[in-house]
Amino acid sequence: MRRWAEFVLRHRKAVVAFWGLVLVAGIALAGRTTDRLTIDFSLPGQPGTVTAHRIEHAFGSGGDTNPYLVTVTLPAGQTVTGHETDVGRAFTAVGTAVPGVRVIDEANTGDKAFRTKDDRTAYALVFYRFNPSPHQKLLTDPIRVAAQKAVPAGVAIGVTGEDTLASGGDNGGGPGVLGETLLGAVGALAVLAFVFASFLALLPLLVAAVSILATFVMLLPLTYATDVSFIVQFLVALIGLGVAIDYSLLFVTRWREERDHGRDNHDAVVVAMERAGHAVVFSGVTVAIGLLALVVLPVPFMRSMGYGGALIPLASVLTTLTLTPAILGGIGPKVDWPKIRHEDRASRFWSRWTAAVVRRRWIAAATALAALFALVGVFLGIKIGLASSESLAKSGPAYESLQTLERGGVPTGALTPMEVLVRTDQARTTAAQLARIDGVSSVLVPSGPAGNRGGQSIVVVIPDHETVNSKSVGVVKRVKNATGQLPGVIGVAGIGAAQIDFMHAVYGNFPLMLTIIALLTYVLLVRAFRSLLLPLKAVVLNLISLAATLGLMVIFWQDGHGSNAVFGIAATGAITFWIPLMVFAFLFGLSMDYEVFILSRIREEYDTGRSTDAAVIEGIGRTGRLVTSAALILFLAFAALASGPGTDLKTLATGLGIGILLDATIVRMLLVPSLVSLFGPWNWHLPGWAARLLRVAPSYPHPEPAKSGPGQPAG
């Protein structure tokens, strides 16, 4: 690290010029990168996806999309009976005017299940072809316009469905990636201004801007090699903002500390690189490990988030360890004005806090663990699936149309129908068998091209309730089991089938992913801390903290104790199936950042001859404000992400934000100091055989004085 610092300082003008070019390239190419991102949650090789692709290939629509529900409501005093021609004309117009859709209604099924019980409203299922472009607009407006033109004045047309409800019924919403990033940056600047109390607060923001744009540049070639999920753009912008600022904040804070200790600017940069830079490297690698572990999952969109997400810490580490020292080595002292805050001694607040925790280490550890395990207990009641329709929208045309159908006795299962692909000669027989299954409301066999092509037919199964979580998806399992015994059945598709496949393919491989992350992180941290016990504690605490975070998500979102108050969104009833894995992958590395920051400094203080307790107090006294500020900056970035459209994005953002705050407070500022103090000399053991394997110096505890006071240094 010293040699690297000297190299950067010798070539600092070239380093700044290089990143200037990257900045320009990023501005020019970021838009092209985001245009190439895709929306694709398919699971290649899984039964539901295979059937969905067959349906899409044969019929041109449906398979892996939830249909739109188009409603035709007649004026008061009129009923569908007697106006079947007008109603049928509306649905026919949709099929004619909107390309690539397949309409299933009473006209081609002969089933009165498409009417409400008051006979005033009829509806149709409109299956459409999936478009992977994140810029694809909803078909809500074209469908509504086509149907409205075909009916007399006074007839009300509505369009609803899972996608329409999730978007609030429009094609936009939220401030967009750039707006969210600017919101996060404003919040981060406020925190940095408090931390530095000088113009130096602008430096981490500059580094973050370069890092984010560099990530988009690196991401562009990846989009040509494989499909990359549109979610990555939000992660790059917001998590990239937080991580790059955190790393730069750590580096600049250490540089200021060394300057306040009397070092000249050159030496201060070098020491900051040796100490803070070392921690940044290990933190970045830890974050990357958590994300790259996603590539073991047999799901393309999760793998793409692993590849794309791993670029975030890579870019953050590169910019922090090159651009930051290059700028500090040149104009750092001039920018650090007016210098109101000094770093020549540890924070008195955090030193007093840690001393109190160390004195009452047993109470502190027991209290923190009790709180975490209580949340872990809540986590055990998690339901994996999708947000219920009740939580997707509480107003707007799509919500009103759904309310009309529900009041009319139409089951919410119409939002998530199953499509059973069968041989045409077995369609009626299959439908009759499936209609007997518990939880099935109706079974529809469309006539004509809407349900029959090339010797294959689609039997549409409407469940009693929408199949959006691990409990309500039971009817899908029963349908799949029944079709396995019926001749001529090719497969079952639909969102419920996709959930079952996801649970099998992804969560079935989760133990492997967890093992890879835990082992790689443990080995990395053993090398970083030169200890066998400290890394084990770090990994175990991280896993407990993550389970507790998911417990808070159950309370906040699944049970609605928070989502309604903060976002006006009702209880989701379940956590979207891919979100727990994303929260785990990102938080495992991000929260480990703070562990690395704190324990690296505690290790450094212990190596100067301090006792374990004194090292803990001094280490957290030096890093407490830093970790709290870094966590707050990341939290503000996630709060900005939560301002985006869609319940899923809000759920992911709040999960990450809650996890960061939980980890930076209960875990890092209460549990870590108490446990390190309790472990005492055992923290510092790294036997010679392990040290030789990892190519580091062995470590053994040095003699410590009797604990006359927890804040007294050794000898």
UniProtKB/TrEMBL annotation:
Q: What is its main location?
A: membrane
For this protein, the record's InterPro entries field holds: MMPL_dom, Mycobact_MmpL, SSD
The record describes its membrane topology as: Multi-pass membrane protein
- List membrane-spanning regions: 182-200, 205-224, 230-253, 279-301, 307-331, 362-382, 506-526, 538-557, 569-590, 626-646
SUPFAM superfamilies assigned to the protein according to its UniProt record, in alphabetical order: Multidrug efflux transporter AcrB transmembrane domain
Q: Where in the cell is it found?
A: Cell membrane
Keywords in UniProt for this one? Cell membrane, Membrane, Transmembrane, Transmembrane helix
Query: Where do the SSD domain residues begin and end?
Result: 196-330
Q: Note one Pfam family from the annotation.
A: MMPL
User: Can you say what this protein is called?
Assistant: SSD domain-containing protein
Q: Which organism is it from?
A: Streptomyces coacervatus
